[in-house]
Amino acid sequence: MSDPSLSALKQACQSFADQPGQIAVIVQSKSDPAHRVAINPALSFPSASLIKIAIACAAASDPDLNLAEARIIEDLDPTFYCSILQAFEPGDQISLKALIGLMLIVSDNPATSAVLDAVGMETVNAWLKDNQLNDTNLSVGFDDDSLGPPLRANLTSAEDCLSLLKCVEAKPEFDFIQHMLRNNLRNERIPRHLPDSAVIAHKTGTLNGLVHDIAVVESPEAAFYLIVLADSLPEDHDFAGEIARFAKQVYDLMVG
What we know:
The chain has one domain: Beta-lactamase, CATH 3.40.710. Helices cover 37% and strands 19% of the residues. The chain has helices spanning 3-17, 51-61, 96-105, 109-119, 121-130, 158-170, 175-181, 239-255; strands at residues 22-29, 36-39, 45-46, 70-72, 93-95, 155-156, 199-207, 210-218, 223-231. Strands 2-1-9-8-7 form a 5-stranded antiparallel beta sheet, with helices on both faces. The protein starts with a helix and ends with a helix.
């Protein structure tokens, strides 16, 4: 990456982060970590659904947990909200690994609750500690009573999100998690304007006034991490669109 491109990237990131609200950004080249821009990397944010990656990693790391073990749909926690699990019959069975897929690919909350019931909140927090994700915690789950304001008790930072994505890449036992993240169906943020040649492993997080997306972007032209966390956003602001436009700008600058 040339010096002028890095300078332009810094300006683009600062301009993006200067919008109303609390915004953190990290852009880092995969091939050369020195090519990095970080704004508010240690600022604490509610993690929303980003924490689901850590839940998946903790489940995959638990030697006592058999991910092939099945759960019966009617035994899972009911929900008032929409869930892809409603497409199944009550007596259908689904494996824990498939539930992790639903948790990551469509961010299904009842699937997340089922995985969290299996692995345990203490195990997830121990995994976070063991992997030095010290700004990240899991205090509440994803059952109906915990959705909305209570979910803000789960915290993370942009730096921890970067470390989490690197952790998923580094350990072979997480290969299936990376594959699931590459097949995310919520693609209106970072992936929206990127070329078809780009493979994007990412996870979104959403609450009222909060819009996150964290990604590993890889293509023949560029490979980089992009972390965007945003909270306290103005009402009715199309921040998903802002992220999409920013991601394309970052991509073009990383291509150089």
